Recover the amino acids of this structure.
């Protein structure tokens, strides 16, 4: 490894510990929680060796509760009406050198949360890193532009990263497939679609995040897909053992075969989800982490 890169990454590790990462967009369903919980949390855990604090600010859908068995995050659910009171303590966590991830709900929850953050002045503003996820729809881009305008209203030159949610898998950010998939973001002269990316007036870094298989694998195991993928070997051995035990039970109890068969199907289905998680963690997440590192090294 290039020693200059190694030193930069070590410096990045130190800087990440006092940052507040906010995933935000006034539009719902664009991948805010997936970005916060499936990308940022494992990235920060792996990079800083700290367990991030996740503040889930969306009483309409506290997605962090899905990860009840996760060992790489501490989650706190906060209703927006209480965020003003809670955020002082949350911001104080930064002093203890622990990264914080805010998963902020859509619409008025976004607007009110940004107003609260604005009141804390430079000591918090200077520690903010904003991730604005978008999907492929035209309204997603318009909402992202509105959100970015509000962020920049807090203070100029905020650190903003645009996240391309559910991007095509294993295609780097420079690949034309992303430009076709997110044509409302990049523009498409053939279809006479203007580039919202250029209309924004500033070129923000963007991160392509694949994620078509994230949700089912996570729901099955109540952990991040990163954790599921990392623990695959131990799980694979336990699956083989359980299937062997079921085969013996069929021989010993032929009358129970239908019931045992259903149990075998359930275990096989879970094993398939585990394999999907392993592939995602090994290939897609590693590429995403690498891309995020390159962005943060330039941004911070």
């Amino acid at each position: 490894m290039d020693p200059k890169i190694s030193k930069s990454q070590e410096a990045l590790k130190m800087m990440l510990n006092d940052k507040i990462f906010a995933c935000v967009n006034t539009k719902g369903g664009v991948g805010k929680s997936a970005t916060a919980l499936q990308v940022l949390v494992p990235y920060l855990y792996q990079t800083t060796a700290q367990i991030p604090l996740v503040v889930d600010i969306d009483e309409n859908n506290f997605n962090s509760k899905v990860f009840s068995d996760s060992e790489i995050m501490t989650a706190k659910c906060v209703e927006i009406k209480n965020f003003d009171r809670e955020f002082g303590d949350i911001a104080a966590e930064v002093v203890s050198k622990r990264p914080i991830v805010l998963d902020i709900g859509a619409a008025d929850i976004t607007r009110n949360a940004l107003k609260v953050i604005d009141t804390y002045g430079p000591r918090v503003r200077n520690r903010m890193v904003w991730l604005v996820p978008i999907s492929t729809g035209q309204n997603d881009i318009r909402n992202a532009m509105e959100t970015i305008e509000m962020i920049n209203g807090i203070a100029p030159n905020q650190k903003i990263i645009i996240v391309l949610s559910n991007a095509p898998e294993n295609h780097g950010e420079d690949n034309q497939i992303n430009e076709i998939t997110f044509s409302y973001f990049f523009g498409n002269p053939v279809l006479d679609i203007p580039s919202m990316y250029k209309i924004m007036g500033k070129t923000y870094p963007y991160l392509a995040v694949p994620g078509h298989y994230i949700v089912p694998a996570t729901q099955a195991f109540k952990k991040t897909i990163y954790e599921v993928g990392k623990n695959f070997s131990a799980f694979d051995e336990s699956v083989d053992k359980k299937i062997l035990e079921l085969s013996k039970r069929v021989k010993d109890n032929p009358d129970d075969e239908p019931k045992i068969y259903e149990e075998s199907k359930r275990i096989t289905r879970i094993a398939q989800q585990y394999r999907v998680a392993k592939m995602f963690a090994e290939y897609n997440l590693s590429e995403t982490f690498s891309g995020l590192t390159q962005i943060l090294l330039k941004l911070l």
